[in-house]
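Encode chain A's predicted structure.
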Amino acid sequence: MEKSVLVEKSGHVATLIVNRPQKLNCFNKAVVDELTACLKQLEYDEDTKLIFIEGSGERAFCAGGDLVEMKEVYKRDGKQKAMQLFQKEYALNYYVSDYKKPIITYLDGITMGSGVGFSIGTDFRIVNENTAWAMPEVKIGFFPDVGAGYYLSKMVDGLGKYLALTGKIIKAEDCVFLEVADYKISSRDYTALKQDILEFSWEKLNLNEVSATIEDMIQDYSVEIEEGYLQKHRKDIQLHFDKQNLDEIWESLQKDTDSPFVKDALQEMNENLPIAMAVTIEQLNRAKHMYLKECFEQDLILSENFLNQGDVFEGIYAKLEQKRKTDIWQAKSFERIEKNRVETYFL
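Encoded structure for chain A:
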């Protein structure tokens, strides 16, 4: 059976390639286990100075977690087995965020969910003109997990809440603007950049020198960042999304429905499960005062409670298996959600 993660070694550089192109490199148990094992081995390999992480194929770095497979595990083996999948992935993301050697992630194409959670804590995050970055979990009745809540909660002017509630797909410029990526390069230049790194003499450099050299080399290929969608609409986002709860956000949007920006935001939000959005707002409010490890602990509690509710399985079936885009929550139209109901997801 072909491995889910391919390993290439050239001199002092290792490349790990998530090898599920037919599934848009979605993370499943095999990917998480193999990435964890490879990274642990390379961390203490004195010959390895730095690591590239890539996705296979031309469409995606990683389009998310394999939730269809998770659903099958839940149905076949029970909730405990499904929760083990979340535990392993969250542990991997936390491990990567404090990894001892520089990691370069190349976010070529779709980067969502698990792709965000894994890459966001790495050292050098490269985007290009094909990058499509998002945390769209509320669209299947879930929440932005994989530690993303920590980073979203730290974004100013309601930007994190906007991204979490709409699942808006953003491009390279906004990724750099939000500091969820570090550099934009042209996809045409990536091969040349990587070749420069592979051919460089790394053996005599310490970790700090390796990181500084990598930064200089990437900057040589980086392109100027233009104004992105979020920058253009920053005042609109702050006006409507820099609020404490879903009711306030919803009421603010309803007062400005002639705005093209608001129309777009409402169209995105109308596809989502209201309780998932309400829980997400509370998640980000709490995460703002948490360390990363605490956010992962919160994610585990929320994941289990979302599985218990069962709406996420309806979302997976409709949006991931049947590929339906809208109307799956028609019977669950927006209504005022009691705070005590939201709080049950955190217990």
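The radius of gyration is 20 Å.
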